[in-house]
Amino acid sequence: MQHNKLGKWGLKVSRMGLGSYLTIGDRVSDRDARQIVRLAVDAGIDFFDTADQYNAGQSEEALGNILSEYPRSSFVLATKVYNPTGNDPNERGLSRKHVFEACHASLRRLKMDYIDLYQCHRPDPDVPVEETAAAMNDLIRQGKVLYWGVSEWGAEQIAEACDVCGRMGLYRPVSDQPRYSLLWREPEREVFPKCQAEGMGVLAYSPLAHGVLTGKYKPGEPIPAGTRAASEATNKVMMGRYYTEQNLERAEALGVIAKELGVTSAQLALAWIMARPAVSSVILGASRAEQLIDNLKAAKLQIPADAMQRIETLFPRE
Question: Counting CB atoms within 10 angstroms of each CB, which of 38, 166, 209, 284 has the fewest?
Fold first, then answer.
C-alpha cells in the first residue's frame, strides 16, 4: 500500500483509509468489524477515520477497542467535532468550550492518550475562526491532538483559517475532508486548488456515492432488497443526492469500461480518485469483508489514458 504525505506536512497516510460511518460500531457486528480492520491492516491501511457523532459515539468506542490490539504508533486515527453530542446549547459547534470537552470525551471513548488528526466536521458560522483555531492550538500544545483539519469547508473558509493561524502564530489546519466522487466533483473547482496552495492534504470521503457507483443499482429496475438504498435508516443522503435515473445510467456505463479493463466498477471509481494529485487518501466504507477485499484491489490499478478520457466524458465536472 502506497503512503502519501498529508499535504506538505510530515504525517503520512495510506492512500486508502478505512472509515466507520454507518459501519463499525453501528450496523456491523463487533466480530465482522474486527475482521474488516484486520483485512485493512494486512493490506497496509493505517489510516482510520471516525467521528463523535457516528452512532452517538459508539463508533469511536468500537474502533478504539479494536485498534487497542495494535501498537499506537502503527496507525493514524482521525475523529471529528461539531455535530450535537447532547441537548445543551454548548454541546455542539466549534466553540472553545465544545471543542475542548468533545476532545476529552472522544479520548475517553477511544481509550487513547491523543488523537492524530482532529477535524472540524463542518464550519460553524456562529463561532469566529480564531476561537476554534486557538482551541485546536491549545489541544496540540497539550499533546492531546497532533494535527487538526477540517471537513466540508469551502475554499474561502479554508483561506480564512490559514490566514488567521498565520497572523496569530497558531498551528495551521493540515487537511480537508470533502465529499468527492465521480458523481460529486465540486471540490475540484475551488477547494482542491486552495488546499494545494496552502499545503493541505485532501481526504476524500463517499468515493462510491453511497454505493451508486458500484453498479448494484440498475436503471429502470427495483431497488435490491437488503441494500443501503432500500433502507430508510441509511438512504437519506443517497436518495437525495445521487439516486437518479441519469446517474444509474452513467454508473452502468462505467461498468462497461470496468469490464473491458477486467475490474469492478467500484475499483475503477476508487482508482480514478487516487489518480487525483490533490488527494492524499480515499476513505473506504465497508460493511462486509468481501466489499473491502474488492475495493482494496483498486490500489494497484493504473487507468489507461483512453479509459480515463472516456470516464471524464461520462462524468464531466458540472
Answer: 166
More confident residue, 228 or 207: 207
CB 177 within 8 A of CB 254: no
> Residue 249's pLDDT band (boundaries 50, 70, 90)?
very high
Rounded distance, CA 213 to CA 101, Å? 38
What's the grid cell of residue 306? 483512453
Count of Cβ atoms closer than 10 Å to residue 216 Cβ: 16
Can you list the alpha helix ranges (DSSP code H) found in the chain? Answer: 30-42, 58-67, 96-110, 129-141, 155-168, 191-198, 236-241, 245-261, 265-274, 289-296, 305-314
Give the three cell numbers for residue 59: 463508533
54 is catalytic: yes
| 199 Cβ contact partners less than 8 Å away, ≥ 6 residues apart | 7, 8, 9, 174
Nearest of 296, 293, 288, 287 to residue 20 by alpha carbon: 287
HEC states along 196-245? HHHCCEEEEECCCHHHHHHCCCCCCCCCCCCCHHHCCCCCHHHHHHCCCH
Return the C-alpha torsion angle 220, 222, 227, 230, nearest 10: 110
User: Quick check: 318 pLDDT over 80?
Assistant: no
Which pairs from 224-230 meet CB under 8 Å and 24+ separation?
228/22
Which DSSP state fits 190? T
pLDDT at 210: 92
**30-42 vs 289-296: helix axis angle to the nearest 10?**
20
Backbone angles phi, psi at 150, to 5 degrees: -130, 170
CB neighbours of 266 closer than 8 A, spacing ≥ 6?
A: 208, 213, 214, 215, 294, 295, 298
Dist. CA 61–CA 177, nearest whole Å: 22
SS3 of 140, please?
A: helix
Classify the C-alpha dihedral 205-207-208-213 as positive or negative: positive
